[in-house]
Write a structure and sequence with these properties.
- The strands form 4 sheets. This protein has an 8-stranded mixed β-sheet with strand order 1-4-3-2-5-6-7-12, sandwiched between helices. It has a 3-stranded mixed β-sheet with strand order 13-10-15. A two-stranded parallel ribbon has the order 8-11.
- Helix 3 links the parallel strand 3 and strand 4 (85-89).
- The protein has 12 helices and 15 strands.
- 50% of the residues are buried.
- It has helices at residues 17-22, 41-52, 68-78, 95-104, 119-124, 126-146, 180-198, 232-240, 268-283, 304-315, 339-345, 353-366, and strands at residues 5-6, 32-36, 56-61, 85-89, 109-112, 151-157, 203-209, 211-213, 247-250, 262-263, 265-267, 291-296, 302-303, 321-324, 333-334.
- Helix 6 packs parallel to helix 7 (180-198) and helix 8 (232-240) packs parallel to helix 10.
- Bound molecules: nicotinamide-adenine-dinucleotide (NAD) and uridine-diphosphate-N-acetylglucosamine (UD1).
- Uridine-diphosphate-N-acetylglucosamine binds next to helix 8 and strand 9.
- Residues 117, 119, 157-159, 182, 211, 230-232, 235, 247-250, 261, 263, 304, 327, 329-330 line the site of uridine-diphosphate-N-acetylglucosamine.
């Protein structure tokens, strides 16, 4: 079991040349980043990219919606860089436990993924969402401040925009979330803006993700939702592996190219790279970043039918479709304006829906039941490179 310590038990050898170029200040030691929620879908991919870029990563996660196997697979995929990975099973709502983690290591920055993300559940259980997403964030910020760690990358969401009337949606659009989940993201953003106003030493990047899909090309890391998936692609994936009979399309009478909703799907690897770019910005002392939001999307709109067709091509599986009612609160068309991230973070998504569907299917076919798949124990640390 990987709890409270270095994942592979080794530590200490000197950083590689790549590490010096990226994860360290050049002449100084390798930089250490605390990653909350690093066992989750996006967090696990980001941790792997951070390690590859030469950072040291300390993951804290309650494993509420994830498996420690994801962290062990990150370690296996990271090869030699795994010596720079540690994991602590910690709930960020437990301030004492967070304090213990901060007392054990000096963090140069924090990437804060931990939280709950199911929109429907947030409507049913708003206090649970405020508890994890707001109280958890407040605890984290308090402990960061107490330890003088004032660089933060926060996982926000396109949900903060609600249903904008037009796209591309830029960072200046009104922030009018439609549900408790989206409101927790907006409130956390506002807390960050207030903290920066109170103390200009803080450097905070708010990343507003559009629709993350896909998986690591190895097929060892991917999305593993508990219960019925809320989002389209995890649902499609479960139909493809025979766990569900069909996908219901939420409305085919929108004013779009084929009547179905249009979204900005982004490969999780591109998203992970966006976090490395954000960290570089935080560590770039030539810019006064303050507290800034950035959209992470591709800037391209894809309809439900288009992405399902692309998945059918990638998997060779027929996905039975049922036309259903519109889902309340859904936008007709939503895709990102990406110019700000391109200009200021020097980041741009590289992958299209073909690669997203290819990698999602590779993950699904190897792990039809996610990390609980029967043969998954064979993939717990013996990944070949
Ligand atoms: P995920 O559920 O896979 O990962 C979140 C991780 O946080 C999980 O490992 C979970 O166990 C952990 N966690 C939850 N509450 C915690 C707590 N109190 N203490 C410690 N750990 C806790 O979700 P994800 O898709 O990887 O999302 C990561 C972040 O990105 C979330 O904040 C989410 O709201 C945000 N986001 C996700 C999407 C998306 O579509 N996946 C879109 C926009 C924003
Ligand atoms: C949803 C959330 C949003 C959150 C985002 C990423 C809602 C109203 N919005 O956005 O707050 O930030 O996930 O986590 O829940 N679709 C189907 N059938 C399905 C599922 C989805 O047709 O079974 C359609 C939707 O109507 C939409 C598209 O597929 O047009 C994408 O849906 P989804 O993956 O849920 O993402 P969003 O709606 O963009």
């Amino acid at each position: 079991m990987v709890v409270n310590g270095a994942v592979n038990g080794s530590s200490g050898s000197s950083p590689s040349r790549a590490a010096l170029a990226n994860g360290s200040s050049g002449s100084g030691p390798t930089r250490t980043v605390l990653v909350t929620g690093g066992a989750g879908y996006i967090g696990s991919h980001a941790v792997l990219q951070l390690l590859a870029a030469g950072f040291r990563a300390v993951v804290v996660d309650s494993l509420e919606n994830s498996s420690d196997l994801a962290v062990r697979r990150v370690a296996a995929l990271a090869g030699d860089h795994a010596r720079n990975l540690a994991f602590h099973k910690v709930d960020i709502r437990d301030e004492d436990a967070l304090e213990t983690v901060f007392a054990s290591s000096r963090f140069d920055a924090v990437i804060h993924f931990a939280g709950l993300k199911a929109v429907g559940e947030s409507v049913q259980k708003p206090l649970l969402y405020y508890d994890h997403n707001i109280l958890g964030t407040i605890n984290l910020l308090k402990v960061m401040a107490a330890h003088g760690c004032k660089k933060l990358v926060f996982s926000s969401s396109a949900a903060v925009y609600g249903s904008p009337k037009n796209s591309p949606c830029t960072e200046e659009f009104p922030l009018t979330p439609h549900n408790p989940y989206g409101r927790t993201k907006l409130i956390a953003e506002e807390i960050c803006r207030d903290i920066y106003r109170s103390d200009s030493e803080w450097r905070i990047i708010l990343l507003r993700y559009f629709n993350p899909v896909g998986a690591h090309p190895s097929g060892y890391l991917g999305e593993d939702p508990r219960g019925t998936p809320n989002n389209l692609m995890p649902f499609v994936q479960q139909v493809a592996v025979g766990r569900r009979p069909s996908v219901t399309i939420f409305g085919n009478n929108y004013a779009t190219k084929d009547g179905t909703g249009v979204r900005d799907y982004i490969h999780v690897l591109d998203l992970a790279d966006g976090h490395v770019a954000a960290l570089r910005k935080l560590f770039d002392s030539s810019s006064n970043i303050g507290c800034e939001p950035y959209n992470l999307g591709t800037g391209k709109g894809t309809s439900v039918l288009e992405i399902v067709n692309a998945f059918e091509k990638a998997s060779g599986k027929k996905i039975p479709l049922v036309i259903g009612q519109r889902r309340p609160g859904d936008a007709e068309v939503l895709f990102a304006g990406t110019g700000k991230a391109e200009r200021e973070l020097h980041w741009k998504a590289k992958y299209g829906i073909t690669e997203m569907c290819r990698d999602q299917w590779n993950w699904a076919s190897k792990n039809p039941y996610g990390y609980a798949s029967p043969d998954s124990t064979k993939q717990n640390g013996s990944i070949s490179h």
